[in-house]
Amino acid sequence: MSSQQPSDMLPPDHFLLQPRQDFLLGVQEGHIDTSTLAAHDFDVDTRTGFMPPDPPLSRLSVQWEPWEATLDSAMQKKLQLAVKPGLTIEEKNSSESWRELVRQLPVLPTSELTHSELLLRRAHHVLTFIMHFYIYTLPLSSAVLIPEPISVPLVAISSHLQIPPVVTYSDNVLYNWDIIRPRAQNELGFDPPALDNLRSQDTFSGTIDEQEFYLASARIELRGVEALELMRATMDELFVSDEIAIRRITAYLHKLASIVRDLQTILLDVRKGCDPYTFYHSIRPWFRGVDSDPAGRKWAFEGVEEQPTHLSGPSAGQSTLIHALDVFLGLDNCNVVEGGVTPDQRTLLRKMHTYMPRHHRNFLRHLSTNLRPVRTFVTQLKPDVELLDAYNSAVQSVKEFRDAHIKIVAIYIIAPAARERTELERANPEAPEAGKQVLKGTGGTDLVRFLKGVRDKTAEAVIEHTPQ
């Protein structure tokens, strides 16, 4: 049981970038004190960034114990994917008996959950995990009808949280961790968890590989905290804009590039703990949303009048940290040449915001209202070669991070998919087209085209030196 109490009252330093009124009104209006703004405006912590400062709740209270017990049962039974090759009769029967228990659950009330963001987060995590266990243990020939004991409370909870009723990045990463060893404490509270002192609370497959897959993203989030602080410091200096401020911004951008390269290293290190074959065949299928369902099935939520529409699976593209880098550096709005990111791909990037916690969406909106964008500032001072080089170094580091992401996708998805396609064609040479569908990410995107388009857009954002 987590020692964290379900309360939404957070310390004043909980948010890193307060909404600065001068961003909205203009510098000439003067700086207005915003220290009384509620911490939940952004839910960004100075120690842990977009992750909560303390481990998320690991269990709901007794009123909702049937949900927790149902999830426990799924993990303890080690339920198997319906698409698993060689699925035994015993495994099929185990899944069906568990699904019958789900259908017999009572429809529990959710009104008392709405008093606490922490309870709502845990409830969303538990119910979406149960839902994905239910859907992906069903035979592919079966329609997907999510039972009322899950669908009704999940849709209500998701409405309060303003996120879709489906497993998201926040369910797998942000609100699914705990510490291994006790942390040191000082007058300001507990130290942030060390990158090697994390474990996941819940997994679908029960494998270390799945845990390491989640923790790679969690470690990126924690290392990215310093990047968020550099963004704040840079924006402060942009409102000064004198010679000293320019020198500081130059140093901050170089440091930001260094941090993003650390994120790249952490990303590539996932190979040390997560086997590609295990990931592709035993982990990734649990994440699929409705738009990447292997049988193209639609999901029906029993007892819900207005059926949910946003049901893509979790994706690294739902990380607010990476979007924040784009917004801060102006990579989300800069023009690109033909062959870069298309309008449809821009829409997909924006779509990822739908799956983020609402506070983090507010953070991105606030970041985008900065009246002195760093990219505009750099272009106006193009004769300052050092500043320009620092900005380009930061942009290049993001491009290299995306190169690394494409490499990981190639290792963990593209290569296993190619092997699977070859095996399918050998087994059934009369129907080779069956394995040649567009490769989609768990978020429903045309995976390769999307990632390369975003990467290329980032590379094109480098500002060329203009001869004087």
- Multimeric status of the protein: single chain
What is the CATH topology descriptor?
Methane Monooxygenase Hydroxylase, Chain G, domain 1
Q: Spell out the helices and strands N to C.
A: HHHHEHHEEEEHHHHEHHHHHH
| Rg for CA atoms | 23 Å
Number of helices: 16
Distance between the termini: 64 Å
Q: What labels describe this entry?
A:
468 residues, mainly alpha, two-stranded parallel sheet, two-stranded antiparallel ribbon, 16 helices, 6 strands
Would you give an account of this structure?
With 468 residues, the protein is mostly helical. The chain has one domain (43-460): Methane Monooxygenase Hydroxylase, Chain G, domain 1 (Up-down Bundle), CATH 1.20.58.480. It contains 16 helices and six strands. It has helices at residues 21-25, 65-76, 89-103, 117-137, 148-161, 169-174, 208-223, 225-238, 243-268, 276-283, 320-329, 343-353, 358-368, 374-380, 385-427, 447-460; strands at 144-146, 177-179, 185-186, 189-190, 198-200, 299-301. The strands form three sheets. Strands 1-6 form a two-stranded parallel sheet. The chain has a two-stranded antiparallel ribbon with strand order 2-5. Strand 3 and strand 4 form a beta hairpin. Helix 2 (65-76) packs across helix 4, helix 4 (117-137) crosses helix 5 (148-161) and helix 9 runs parallel beside helix 15 (385-427). The longest helix has 43 residues, at 385-427. It is globular. The protein starts with 20 loop residues before the first helix and ends in an 8-residue tail after the last helix. Mean pLDDT is 86; it is low at 1-16, 18-40 and 335-341.
